[in-house]
């Protein structure tokens, strides 16, 4: 076995934290627990796969815990479709959020010179560790048929503008960048892990760019076997795995927001009034406390949202010879309450196991 195949990378992974004070029950305690586990496992870095925070303007405490974490961990993240959702004045925008995706100053952004753009308008990048290249994508582009151009999801929106087509795409500019990045990795004998909020496998409900990306993976793996080993996505609040064309696809479960059903929010609440959670502080843009809640009652979204009891996350090890190990976890539905219908993939767990790709 060559030294190149002996290389390994170990990281912590979580997705869809949906931090929103006074609304969802996800808390800083959940995030701190993920970081504590990561530190104890001796990971190389921590990765969040999108929908991290729905109001970054008023959540400086989240950056204190994640970006400036007490363990000194290097952390990364990507855009989900909810990360610019709040603030109708547009303050929760890419100029604010893009620099907060990572605490690593040495990532290579998808700009022409690889440096961060002044307006934060390019939110995709890659970084390298231990002979691996980790490519972090932004699947929030769509085609505006009225204006005739590709655009990013706008501030104060949870998704693409109404009437746009090819929603949850990478767009042609990012696709071309991705092909260059992966081709370069093949030429340099780097193994790649691709992270996106929307997925690219045939597991279903994935990006309109799925087939183009899978063909790209086939092409670079034909140049050098094992160039792309793994592709990770969040978004669907499910846990599912598929090996396709010798690439390990992982749909990562949500941290705690198990299920959200936006229609019929007038249904009766399904959590008891006695179920209360952590204190939240709301901050204004100047850092002063804007509001304080000593406790958050689950009834805030208890007619439309179901939660896991504990914050789901996993520890993943990938080696150059195609071995993938996942140290997952199991929990339960919060208060034992779950929707009437759930699938085998929509349950409170992250799978533990070992897999071997043909490298």
Shape: globular
Written as H for each helix and E for each strand, in order along the chain, the element string is HEHEHEHEEEEEEHEHEEEEEEEEEEEEEE
What's the main sheet like? 7 strands, mixed
CATH class, please?
Alpha Beta
Cα-atom Rg, whole angstroms?
A: 20 Å
Average pLDDT metric: 91
**Low-pLDDT residue spans:** none
- How many structural units, i.e. domains? 1
Name the strands of the widest sheet in spatial order. Answer: 4-5-6-10-11-13-12
Structural class determined from secondary elements: alpha+beta
**Helix percentage range:** 10-25%
Written account of the structure:
The protein is α+β, with helices and mostly antiparallel strands and 359 residues long. The protein has one domain: Metallo-dependent phosphatases (Purple Acid Phosphatase, chain A, domain 2, 4-Layer Sandwich), CATH 3.60.21. The chain contains six helices and 24 strands. The chain has helices at 3-6, 28-41, 60-66, 94-97, 171-187, 210-223; strands at 8-14, 45-48, 75-77, 108-109, 125-129, 132-136, 141-144, 149-152, 165-169, 191-196, 228-233, 240-244, 247-251, 257-260, 276-277, 280-283, 289-293, 296-297, 305-307, 314-319, 323-327, 329-330, 349-350, 353-356. A seven-stranded mixed β-sheet has the order 4-5-6-10-11-13-12, with helices on one face. Helix 2 packs parallel to helix 3 (60-66) and helix 5 runs parallel beside helix 6. It is globular.
């Amino acid at each position: 076995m060559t030294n190149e195949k002996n290389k390994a990378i170990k990281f912590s992974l979580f997705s869809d934290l949906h931090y929103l004070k006074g609304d969802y029950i996800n808390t800083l305690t959940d995030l701190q627990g993920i970081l504590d586990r990561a530190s104890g496992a001796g990971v190389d870095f921590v990765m969040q796969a999108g929908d991290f925070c729905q109001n970054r303007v008023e959540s400086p405490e989240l950056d204190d815990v994640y970006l400036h974490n007490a363990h000194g961990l290097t952390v990364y993240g990507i855009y989900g479709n909810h990360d610019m959702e709040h603030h109708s004045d547009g303050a929760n925008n890419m100029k604010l959020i893009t620099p907060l995706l990572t605490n690593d100053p040495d990532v290579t952004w998808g700009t022409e010179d690889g440096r961060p753009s002044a307006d934060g308008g390019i939110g995709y990048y890659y970084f390298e560790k231990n002979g691996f290249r980790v490519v972090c994508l932004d699947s929030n582009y769509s085609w505006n048929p009225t204006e005739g151009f590709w655009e990013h999801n706008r501030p104060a929106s949870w998704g693409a503008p109404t009437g746009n087509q090819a929603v949850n795409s990478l767009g042609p500019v990012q696709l071309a960048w991705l092909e260059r990045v992966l081709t370069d990795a093949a030429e340099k004998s780097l193994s790649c892990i691709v992270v996106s909020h929307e997925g690219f496998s045939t597991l279903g409900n994935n990006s309109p760019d799925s087939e183009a990306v899978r063909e790209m993976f086939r092409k670079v793996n034909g140049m050098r076997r094992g160039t792309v080993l793994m592709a990770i996505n969040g978004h669907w609040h499910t846990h599912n795995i598929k090996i396709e064309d010798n690439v390990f696809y992982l749909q990562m479960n949500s941290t705690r927001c198990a299920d959200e059903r936006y229609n019929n929010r007038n249904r009766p609440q399904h959590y008891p009034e006695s179920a209360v959670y952590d204190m939240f502080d709301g901050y204004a843009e100047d850092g002063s406390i804007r509001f304080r809640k000593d406790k958050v009652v689950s009834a805030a979204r208890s007619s439309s949202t179901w939660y896991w009891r504990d914050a789901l996350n996993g520890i993943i090890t990938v080696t150059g010879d195609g071995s993938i190990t996942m140290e997952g976890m199991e929990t339960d539905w919060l208060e034992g309450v779950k929707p009437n219908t759930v699938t085998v993939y929509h349950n409170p767990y992250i799978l533990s196991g070992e897999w071997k790709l043909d490298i």
